[in-house]
Amino acid sequence: MTDSVSGSDPGPRLGPDDVEVLKRETLYDGWSRLHRYTYRHRLSDGSWTRPFTREVYDRGSAAAVLLYDPHADRVVLVEQFRPGAHAAGLAPWQLEPVGGMVEPGEDPADVVRREALEEANCGIIELIHAFDYMPSVASYQSPIHLFCGRVDAARAGGVHGRADEDEETRVVVLTAEAAFAAVKERPIVSSGGLLALQWLQLNREWLRRKWSAAAE
Question: How many domains would you assign to the chain?
Answer without folding.
Answer: 2
